[in-house]
């Protein structure tokens, strides 16, 4: 792995690893009333809030001038009705931040047993994620738990962090605590960390740091999307019907001549799966509800796929624009695939659109 954004990469890997340890341990202890329903009807748990508090606390200490676009904010925790939730989030975040230093971490990052934070400090850290985004300059984007619904089901979710500079994703980190470490052994050990730096490749590392060095070459496996023939392709798609138009995916699969059933998986674990050679196509078509995709749901995943030799665009072939603010703007869906397959998928989408329009006229 190269030295481009080396300091940022070290810090981001450590922050995501801590957040992953936190969320895995929360899952086993999660009780009723530790999940809220947000205004958009989506769930958020003490795990999402605490993970955002941890990552933002670390980033604020190490890169104090960098703004952060984070999914969550602390308003529900500050409300009187949020008192018990708030206490739990503070306890979980402090437990994580005060855990002993791990290989590659520095005490100057404000980590370790003497670094308790106050409630106000942690709520302020969560709210550091309120940045509105920008076309210019540096910013981080954080999804503390991507795939909260998957997390609650005990299935796939991911802690996702990216550094964006002048609207271009430069660094992407995805921690997947429930993803098999080795795709060839689906029932084997779980947990994988994915790291991509623009121009320097995509890698899988162990989720838990091993040995003294942070990322010795032998621990990082370089990822490359293989060439796919149609018989080997299958679509990687959301589990949630409300998030993506899965009936349209079936149509696209038919046009492509894909015979294998789709793989349904929550979160940016789908991008990670594609980057390491599973499936071959990430397909997410809008359901037509006016929903706008959020930058934290795609920033690290899209870079990971690109650095593994793939292409990620919207369904018209336009690049995703990370400079528009917290969202990607008008929603034309997202398509990710290896270089050779991507253009074919765009063609198949065109054809599927025409077929659908024709049927709707009849
Ligand atoms: N109507 C909608 N259309 C598309 N995506 C949506 C959506 N409502 C929520 N999402 C996003 O879908 C993400 C999960 O992705 P996937 O469907 O691939 O598992 C959610 O992330 P969170 O779980 O972080 O809130 C959320 O941001
Ligand atoms: Mg959410
Ligand atoms: Mg998300
Ligand atoms: Mg989330």
UniProtKB/TrEMBL annotation:
Q: What class of enzyme is it?
A: hydrolase
Write out the catalysed reaction: adenosine 3',5'-bisphosphate + H2O = AMP + phosphate; 3'-phosphoadenylyl sulfate + H2O = adenosine 5'-phosphosulfate + phosphate; adenosine 2',5'-bisphosphate + H2O = AMP + phosphate
Indicate which residues the UniProt annotation says bind Mg(2+): 71, 143, 145-146, 297
Alphabetically sorted, this entry's keywords are: Hydrolase, Magnesium, Metal-binding
Q: Which organism is the protein's source? A: Fomitopsis schrenkii (Brown rot fungus)
Q: Which one of the record's GO molecular function terms can you name?
A: 3'(2'),5'-bisphosphate nucleotidase activity
Pfam families this protein is in? Inositol_P
Q: Which family does it belong to?
A: Belongs to the inositol monophosphatase superfamily.
In this chain the AMMECR1 domain maps to 146-343
Keyword Cell cycle attached: no
Please give the Gene3D superfamilies that the UniProt record associates with this protein. 3.40.190.80, Fructose-1,6-Bisphosphatase, subunit A, domain 1 (3.30.540.10)
The EC number(s) given in the record are: 3.1.3.7
Protein name per the record: 3'(2'),5'-bisphosphate nucleotidase
Q: Which cofactor does it need?
A: Mg(2+)
GO biological process terms on file: sulfate assimilation
